[in-house]
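Hey, I was hoping to borrow your eyes for a little while. For a while now I've been wondering how a particular protein folds. The fold is given in discrete form, as structure tokens running alongside the sequence. Could you read through the record and tell me how the tokens relate to the sequence? Take your time with it, there's no hurry, and the full record follows here:
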Amino acid sequence: MVWSASFAARLAALDAAELTDLLAARPDVRVEPVPRSFEQLAQRLGGPGSIVEALRLLNHDTHLVGEAIAVLGDGATVPAIARLLDTSEPAVHAELAMLRGIGLAWSDGQVLRLPERLQEHWRAELGDAKPLAQIAKPAYADDLRVTASAWDIPVAGARKPELIDALTEMLADPKRVAARIAELPNPARDLLDELRSGLLGVMFGYVDPRRSPVDVLVRAGLVLLVNRRPEVPREVAVGAWLAGLAAGLTGRPEVAKAEATATAADTIAQGAAREAVHILATLLDEAGRKPVAMLKKGGVGAREQGNLAKRLSIPVQTMPLWIDIAYAAELLGETDGGYAPTAAHSRWRAATPSEQWAAAATAWYAIEHAPLLREVNDDKVQPPPLPLVSEAGAMRRALVRTAAADGLSVRGVGGEIDWFYPMHGYDAAARDAKIAAVIQEAELLGVVAQDRVSELGATIVDANPDSVADRCAALLPATECRVILQSDLTAVVSGQPSAAVANLLAAAAVNETRGAGAVWRFSANSVRGALDAGWTAPELLAELAAIAHQPLPQPLEYLVNDTARRHGRVRVRATRSCLVADEAMVAEIAGTRSLAKLKLVRAAPTVLTSPLEPDRVLDSLRAAGFFPVVEDATGAVVVERVTGHLSDTDPIDPPRPTLDASELARRLVADPNGDHAKVSRAERTLAGLNPRLDDAELALLAHAIEHRDDVVISYRNKEGNRTIRRIRPIRLWDRWMESYCHLRGADREFTVANIEAVSPAR
């Protein structure tokens, strides 16, 4: 590609510091396999996925200058852009510095250039309009005179070439054209938009020029009739683009500093961060004991969210946030009929508070939607943790990044999000709702407190979980978990309990309150549950003594020992059901009125039988205050162990290795043309099968095949339909590539020649 060669030369001319800064700003191009030459670097920077990520860094003014470059094409010089946008050349230079710094623009002499795909994207608004000088050649002279007269150009005696030259000169001023367009009635302006986009011609073919509002456009000199068909010159399309701008370069809006001091905000944020970690740990512990129920279509429904919120003592409105974060952090995954902790959960549970918070906060920062605002079309709600297409994630990152940089008011930045992130595309109501949800989520996580990005929150901007954990270790030091066992048969737990402590208390007690000082209550039934699960009284008392910070209260010892003494005096053996106990106990059971429904028959002085299933007999006996155990057919006691549930979903692949910006810059400078780089066999094979892919795309696809990594492709099937697929190549054979397709959830075969673009999987 011509643009790539020119861009590659510009990249090669950067000094080491400039190149390193550019690579640091575009981390996606540092994902393995890294570019081996400046040519490949230009191709990676110009890839569609990379461009989209870079565009999300642009503010309103930078975005507008970039569009102006595309609109002006070969005439895109700094003076021309300044005239078009009615601003100063220094203001244009300031925005160009940002575009150049992130590799979205470069200078070709005096003319400014953009990556080809970005140029096409921004020029699409002009449609396929051609310059007036080109479309006027087949037009009748009389039709040209009509258009010229609309602009007060003398037409008497003028020949066709003279009319074309005069019209070209007149329409060369976009401001003049934009002013004329602004005077049009709405129907005519709408029609002009349809004509320049090509929709009207495609849908209806021939258009009667006498029909209003076409006639209005002709008489305004904005449309030229060519063989009785209306044509929009490119100069008019540029004027229409200019007329459609809500504002020119406005400069950065004034946003007030946050009123709260950093110290005050950080204190509140650290408390919120600890509470967030506690809630996630409690949620995952609960899911380990009993998987969170899943709807048939996937996700956690409103009823199950309500049940969870009640059991965990947290507001039900916030439940989608914690489910989404746990899933995004790969701590929660799918299992049969529900969601349960993944294998990564045990490592996270044993980590320090800073490591736990870093994993949760960075996962939230990367989510592409607002978990607290999951509404979709028709006011339906997409249940968590199902994915959701949204720009809320990009708005979140722009909000936190901007407010953190200068200690600005978070809500103040949110009020100006149209300038800081102009690509969101929402109307005012939807935009404000998403900003409000993002801020609420940030406050619950400790990223924001008192309208200020906290020191904790600032660590997640442009950082990975490991570096975040290191940077906030001093802000979230590990605190000792204290368990106080009281004589009223309660346990008060302060701090974050370990998984072992949480599991012990869950086995032998019932949680009454959660939070900073959680309260658990012991009862005969709760202790019986621990004994049913295989604990003995000495083991249970020893474990409780090990976690307590004072000697065991005597009432608790009495409760455990008394329950153990009574436990197992009644044994249920399947006949359907056979109850075995001492003679006194058998007599007591037989005389208990509430157990009459079991239809018990005394088969011997120490034996009762029932026609009902053992599970029902056990439940009824326990409800009546007895502590039975289960025996197998040989008389051996069956231990009712409570096993933790674990997700059987394969974890998402860890992020691909990313090379340090300075190291990649060093490699490129040392071997600018990639002369010493090795080209793999798969890469050469793919090049023969699909000559349209550039070297960088071939390298990405070959690396994915050789390492079984995910990659994103743009694919056109045999019917001509284009889709974007995230795939994991399995093998290459003949002209097909067998891959696991994440969109279809199954293996698929892709014709290599039909792959139109390749980009790294995020």
User: Anything to note?
Assistant: The two ends are 26 Å apart (CA to CA). Residues 200-211 have pLDDT under 50 and may be disordered. The longest strand covers residues 722-733. Residues 262-471 form one domain.
